[in-house]
Structures are given as structure tokens and as C-alpha cells.
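ok posting inputs for the zinc ion job
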Amino acid sequence: MAINSRHCLSKIFQPITAVSKTANIGHKDVTSKSQRLMLELGIIQQANPGSFHFLPLGIKSLNKLKKIVDDEMCKVGGQRVMFPSLINTKLWENSGRLENAGPELFQLKDRHDHSYVLSPTHEEAASELISSVSPLSYKQFPLRLYQITSKFRDEMKPRFGLMRGREFLMKDMYTFDIDAQSAKRTYEEICESYNKIFERIGVGFVKVLGTSGNIGGSLSHEFHFKADIGEDKVLFCNGCNYSANLELCKSHTCPKCGVEKSVDISNCIEVGHTFLLGDKYSKPLKARFLSKSGKPEDLQMGCYGLGLSRILAASVEVLSSEQEMRWPDTLAPYNVIIVPPKAGSKEEKSTKDVAEKLYTKIEDHIPELKDNVLLDDRLFLTIGRRHLDARRVGYRYAIVINQRASENVPLFELNDIKTNVQVYLDENQLYQYIKENTLL
Ligand SMILES: [Zn+2]
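and the output
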């Protein structure tokens, strides 16, 4: 027997439970819509306050996001690495960051009484890596290293689910250049790459002047999704198009053109942050190169973060209603769900194998949908009930197989869940509709 490679809903581990009935989280700890929907619909499960299990549908979505990020990082010469999470505390002392780090930094000791930091970010580790092989020749730069790993922060009050957790997944890149001018060019190139990543994700975003905070450096930008629950406030000036984190603006007045009336202030969720660091880390940690004249010099650095688990939650937050989860097409765990008739119904007999065949044909006709079609084979449930579930989880298209699929020219009920359109289409029209309306 051939191996059945179809994705079937009955085989997917997706515990659907009302938050009020789960053991690990109280109702009052649910502080955002996306958090509640993702918990209730089996995308994530809370393990401890601020840390989560990613369940299969959550991983599917996360992997799509990682792929977009890997693609774009590769285009700008990024090389993927993995730094350890345990970082020697000495490095943080040397960079001068330890004394200002505060209680959000997780610190621990090993059995030999050596101190470590559970790293929230890796500027020190990246600098130390280069330092340990220094000095490299100027010919080996620019160097652009990035990783996708868990980061840790001892939040006083973890909230909004994946958006402000104590353990979260980030993509962070560290760049090394031989002079300030080329570091600035690198900075602009990576910012442009971030624009492309967010354009591909497909959720409206803004890029604004950012605060450098504990990371430091001379120039910084933040990428935000606008959302009421966002914890950052961003100022937009309609007069001169200036935009910045409100912390950089003294009052509600545009710092550039000085006009007060023309500014809008919005709550935003920060989803990406870039920093031009100069030699803030390379100097104390001795990340150097050998110049043309053979002299060792400090490298010029940049660092670039994307909160991957946060981007997932923030996308769901921005797009969903209180009752129904919505995803950008590019990040939905599956784009199409096929709903065949209930077992024992008369439609079931007249449409035997139609769903399975359609499954294969969709994948053949629309290669982008390979592995993105799901069969709702929970045939003990009515079509209506399964259609409702599909709406709640937010698959873009629910294709219902009913009596009309047994007509001479079979017609399929296509429900475009994003636009609330329901149409009957023949096979070719169906492929056409999906191709024309989906951002993949
Ligand atoms: Zn202005």
C-alpha cells in the first residue's frame, strides 16, 4: 500500500479547550485576544507563566515564517549560525552591560560556581566569537552572521501570550564591517531586507526611528504593527512624514518640523529592531581585523532582531476578531481545508473519493500549496460543524463537498473565509480563484 501523505485533521494534535478549563492558566492571565484564541484553538499551550508549548499547527506556521526569514537573510549574504544560550557572565561584565542589566536578566551558576547569563541577546557572544579567531584579514569582511534561537528574559509580569514571554524565539543578526561607512551601508541593506520580510508576511507595518535602550549604538529603527494593545507609542507626523518612537519625542510635538497639530500617536507592537552599534562591543571584547597596512583595528558592528514568536501572535492579534482567528496567507498553518460529507449521509455515497482526488489535484495545480492542504476527515461531525471550526481556526479556504460535487460537471462550494465569499466553482475555476486571491 502506498504511504498516505495527506494531511488529515483527525491525526493532528490540536487540543481545543476553553481557557477557563485548562489547568495551567487562569482566566485573568489571558490578556490579549490572540493569546486566548491561540490557546483555545490548540496552536500553543502554556507551560509556565511566559513560556509556551508550540503545538503542531503553531510549528507549521512558525516554520513558514522561518523560511521567509532564511530566504531574505540568504539574499543579503547572511550565514546562519547558532550561539549557545549559556553565556559566560564575564563577557557581560566586559561589555559594561551587566551593571545596567537589572533583574530581567536570567543569571545562574554551574556546579563549579561559574556564573552564566541565559542570554536575551548575543552581541557579546558574537563579538567574543570573532575575537577568539582575531585578527581576521580585512578581506574577510563584511561578515553577516545570524541565528534563530530561544531567548530569555525574566519578565516581572509576562503578558499577551507569545508577545511578552520569558522565553521567546528570535532571529538575530550580527554584522561586522571594517569601517563606519561600510557598516552604514550594511545597516541600510539589512533594514531594506526587513522591509521585504514584512512585505512578504503581508501584515501592514511601519518602520520608525527607534530608541537604542540597553543595546546602544548611534542609530536605530523599529518595525511595528499598529494594534490597540501594543505597549509602544509611535508618533507619526502628517506634516513632514517623520515617525519615531514617542520616547524620542519630548512631547506630542513633531521634533522635526515642530508642528503639534499634525501628529498622530498610535499604540504599536514592536516586531523588529535594528541597531548600528559602532564599536560599542567590538572594542571592549576585542573583535578586530587586520587592516591593509597590517594594523589591528576594531570592527564596526550592527545588530538586527526579529521577534519570530511575537510576529506570529501579533499577526493574529491584528487580523482576528474576538471569536475567530485570522492569519496572513503566508503564515496560516494550512491555506485550504477540504470538508467532505458526513459519514452515512447520501452525499457521502455519491461523492466517494472526490475529496481525496481534489486534494491531490489542488497540490498538482498549485505547487505553492504543496503541504498546505488539509482534509477534515472527522466524518462523524456534520459539514456545518466542521465548516464552523474551519472559520474559527482561520484557514483561508474551506472547500465543502456536497451534492453538487456529483453533478455532470462537479461543482465545489468554495468558502473564502477571509472575504466572506461563498461561490460554487468547477475545478478549473477553483484553481483560478485560489491562485488569483492568495498571497503565497
Ligand atoms: Zn513633522
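notes: The mean pLDDT is 95. The chain is about 30% helix and 25% strand.
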